[in-house]
Design a protein that fits this description.
The complex is a heterodimer.
Chain A (H helix, E strand, L loop, with lengths): L3 E2 L4 E5 L4 E7 L6 E7 L6 E7 L4 E4 L2 E6 L4 E6 L8 E8 L6 E2 L3 E6 L1
Parallel strand pairs in A: 2-11
Antiparallel strand pairs in A: 1-3, 3-8, 4-5, 4-9, 6-7, 7-8, 9-10, 9-11
Chain B lengths: L3 E3 L3 E4 L5 E7 L5 E8 L3 E8 L6 E2 L6 E7 L2 E6 L8 E8 L10 E2 L3 E5 L1
Parallel strand pairs in B: 2-11
Antiparallel strand pairs in B: 1-3, 3-8, 4-5, 4-9, 5-6, 7-8, 9-10, 9-11
The chains are: A mainly beta, B mainly beta.
Chain lengths: 111, 115
């Protein structure tokens, strides 16, 4: 039972344009959400997070939006850069420290 | 900067062997985690620990055990390795105890092949 879903396995975006990565969750007990970025042969690195009491969090080129009623969050990257090419994982947590990860979306930013 | 170090980048073992994967963190974090990453399945939690000698099962603990004798070290043990345990294994740590929203810091992973 996949509680966190990333339905797009891959996404290709031109440099300078906006990248939008989507994530859906089913567990209403989740109250904190994170995005991680992973390059090949490296561990995931934390990118940005959002608490369920907010609907938007911004950090430079990265913005995460949360729609609690739809149980949906999205990561916007503007403008996209070639160095953003990586696999992006959405993750969610409830009352404990453990994270539930999505299956990942591979983003390719083309020149 | 937090450093999570996994002892091996690549490991090849035989079916039935007992396999140890080691992870060390240098930030005095209470929580440590073991995940496996498989194509199309994302990261799945095997075990985690929120204190020395404490352990909790994750989503896929079958065939694995863990040991946390010191705060900085968390070991994953494959009791009798099988081919379906061929995977990328990732260790992570974070501060804050059992209830924590602090981001997890990951090691670079161990790619384990069971022949």
């Amino acid at each position: 039972d996949q509680q966190v879903k990333q339905n797009s396995p891959s996404l290709s975006v031109q440099e300078g344009r906006i990248s939008i990565l989507n994530c859906d969750y089913t567990n209403s007990m989740f109250d904190y959400f994170l995005w991680y970025k992973k390059y090949p042969a490296e561990g995931p690195t934390f990118l940005i997070s959002i608490s369920s009491i907010k609907d938007k969090n911004e950090d430079g080129r990265f913005t995460v939006f949360l729609n609690k009623s739809a149980k949906h969050l999205s990561l916007h990257i503007v403008p996209s850069q070639p160095g953003d090419s990586a696999v992006y994982f959405c993750a969610a947590t409830g009352t404990a420290s453990k994270l539930t990860f999505g299956t990942g979306t591979r983003l390719q930013v083309t020149l | 900067d937090v450093k999570v170090t996994q002892s091996s980048r690549y490991l090849v073992k035989r079916t039935g062997e007992k396999v140890f994967l080691e992870c060390v963190q240098d930030m005095d974090h209470e929580n440590m985690f073991w995940y496996r990453q498989d194509p199309g399945l994302g990261l799945r939690l095997i075990y985690f620990s929120y204190d020395v000698k404490m352990k909790e099962k994750g989503d896929i603990p079958e065939g694995y055990s863990v040991s946390r004798e010191k705060k900085e070290r968390f070991s994953l043990i494959l009791e009798s390795a099988s081919t379906n345990q061929t995977s990328m294994y990732l260790c992570a740590s974070t501060s804050g105890g059992l209830i924590s929203n602090q981001p997890q810091h990951f090691g670079d992973g161990t790619r384990l092949s069971i022949l």
